[in-house]
Structures are given as structure tokens and as C-alpha cells.
Design goal:
The protein is mainly beta and 117 residues long. Helices cover 6% and strands 44% of the residues. The protein has one domain. The model has no long low-confidence stretch (mean pLDDT 91).
């Protein structure tokens, strides 16, 4: 996965203080799945959850709080700089229509399919 968000110039991918702060925060996650050409959108998914752990080199674990993956744990890449503070408000998840009020952070990832040989 690669992040759609651009961390501040010079920001490290991993910040231990930020990682500790992220744990127990609510997050909205957006994942865009692209075809192997890197341009064609195959699928978009959105979910919200609670960050359960953030371990350098292993990943950031999120427990899904609603939707089809409710209760499941998803491990996202260990890149704390991709998590942006969310502005207060009500967010509607485009892929599910669910609403989330005042999440702590948001993150977006892009997954590109591998070329088949």
C-alpha cells in the first residue's frame, strides 16, 4: 500500500511519539484498489475503527467498528506520517453510507494489483 496523503516535507515515515498517540484513537480509513496499470480504479473501500497498536516495522492494527468487517482487525503499513488529524464533524463513508462523528484521524492508502505474468 502507498499513502495518498503527503506528509510534511522531511517528515519521517515513523515517529514513535506519534505512534503512541495514535493508539486508542478513532480513524477513518480509505483504500483505493487500482488495476496493474496503476490508473484504473477497481474498488474503493472505507471503514472506521479504533487503532489498537502501532509497532514500527510491523504495522498499525485497527479494529473495525462497523460495516461488513465489524470486529475484524486490519493491519495497515507502519507509516505514522500518513495519519492526518481529522477536522471535527460528521463524515459519511462513501462505500457504505455509514456516518462517523468526530474521528481523531484519517488515512488513505492505494493498493495497485501486480502484473500477471
Amino acid at each position: 500500500m502507498t499513502s495518498d496523503t503527503k506528509p510534511p516535507l522531511g517528515a519521517p515515515a515513523w515517529d514513535e511519539e506519534r505512534a503512541r498517540w495514535l493508539v486508542s484513537r478513532t480513524v477513518i480509513v480509505g483504500v483505493t484498489h487500482l488495476a496493474a496499470d496503476g490508473k484504473t480504479v477497481v474498488n474503493r473501500e472505507h471503514f472506521h475503527g479504533m487503532i489498537m497498536s502501532a509497532i514500527e516495522g510491523q504495522g498499525i492494527e485497527v479494529v473495525c467498528l462497523s460495516g461488513p468487517n465489524e470486529g475484524q482487525t486490519v493491519t495497515l503499513p507502519p507509516v505514522t506520517s500518513a495519519y492526518m488529524d481529522a477536522k471535527p464533524g460528521v463524515y459519511t463513508l462513501k462505500s457504505t453510507g455509514l456516518t462517523v462523528e468526530n474521528p481523531d484521524v484519517t488515512v488513505s492508502w492505494t493498493v495497485t494489483q501486480q502484473l500477471k505474468h
